[in-house]
Fold this protein.
Amino acid sequence: MKFLCNETRENLSAFLDGELNANEYEIVKKHIGECELCANEYKALCALSNELHALDAKPLPSDFNHKLHLRLMNEKKPKSGLFLPRNIRAYSAIAAGILLFILVRSGVYDNLNKSTTAYIDDAVLQYETESMDNSESKGADETSEGGIAQPQPSADVGRIANRDNSKNITAKQDNNTSQKIMAGSQTEGFEEPRQSLPVLPTPAPVSSDAQAAVFAPSENNDNSVTPSPETENIGENVLEDVSVFTEKSADSSEQISPPEPTSPADTAPALRFAPPVPTATPAPQPTVSGGGSTVASPPAPFKASSHDTEVAGFVSVTVRVNSFDEVASVLKEKYNAKEQENGVYIELDSEKFKEVMDFLLGYGAIVTQDETEEELTVNKCVVIPMN
Amino acid sequence: MDDRILVSEAKKGNISSFEKLVEQYQTKAFNLAYRILGNSEDAADAVQDALIKVYKNLGSFRESSKFSTWLYRITYNTCLDYLRKNKRIAASALDPSSPDNGPTLQEAAEKNERTEKIQRAVASLSPEYRVAVVLRDINGHSYEEAALILGCSIGTVKSRINRGRQKLKELLSDYLEQNQDTDRQNQ
């Protein structure tokens, strides 16, 4: 009986409000017919509810409508654009889901499973795709061409090119960029920017078709990379960006035309991630190579090739995200992230790392790899606010 | 006039349609804000801000949901922003003895003792219970609407309303019993 009383008390308010399902309703109704204590409880609740209903609503201040009218007169017409509600997390998750779906469809995901670093590489690529399309800077051209002109570019050139790219990631926030892409004015598809990535120190002629495919088409990158002004409302473009990816990647799946495809099944993934060829590689490490670069502070965007993955295993990255507070609280709650001076810090195994990157992508994550001398035994990830 | 027509007119920038549209809901929005923030002045400001947000973002209002629920939700969130940003408001909202939290002395003198006691009791609830009870018992929302406005589950709303009422019942027990006795005598 005690149990029934407790259960009834829990449901009594909802019973009074007619908010129980038929089954629950019958149980409560039967019980208060039998139990005097609960019946009294119910009566008291009814009395209280009546009192509350009888409370007068507080009237609006007399000048309310006038003030509102004045403010409305100063407002522009309602925006017809995209409005991101507060629970952007849900939307971001959906966006990330769509992105993942596209990746799976286009065959990238198999490669993702092989290499976590390659996965991040792809994330960075998303941003670069757009920044590249929108760029016209000559200085950057030179860097890029430098990379192209030499089939085996030096490590330094690789670093500089990387850093240029890291700046340009922000170009994704430029609405014009997105619109251009949407309008399909560019013929380069999803794949294109990747071809400019591997100005990383390349191992001596690994003569696989796959690698040729990675390097060769970079001639198309003549008009690449202009640092574009940073905008503040990055978060508001998230959905738009995702839709851009959707369209672009859908298109690009047909535009991939590697120079000498051996077979369609082989080439697509090879284009994205040149398979590691450890034997032919004297294992050049971009992360520790010469520091003669004149390009300042922002760390190189993380685009470790799959070589790095094989060699290093774990990475240390810095991720800049929108809605930092929201992201941080989730990371603290779910992944035991620790507070740091400027952000939060997490250590993650490969599986969790992928999961976290997935999550962060929804927040416009910009991932950069940290240069570290120490031998990592786990993936280290520092998450900081975008600005 | 149908909300949908007013919404579509307001989307085109027709201010008088917008005013007509929100007029039906602004008193409830104000009462909600008043119970959260604890004083009329801040409540009025918060509702004004909320209505401007509503106007600006009308273009993105998906008409599959109810306009009023959307409006109350924005009001609720705006009030929470007020509490976060302004410690003075937060302090007064949490303090049941602050002068404007219930009716003013003058108001109380004008009203009967009955109303005043209930107002005080409601004001003394913790904010989450108070808002849930206000949405249900004063503004008359269903649990589902309350859940949409508060951005939580129906189960949470149910439990908050139940706990809030239990607490009120304790606070007002003497008074409620006395009333029940009077009612019985009258019968």
Notes: The domain at 103-187 of chain B is CATH 1.10.10.10 (Arc Repressor Mutant, subunit A). The mean pLDDT of chain B is 83.
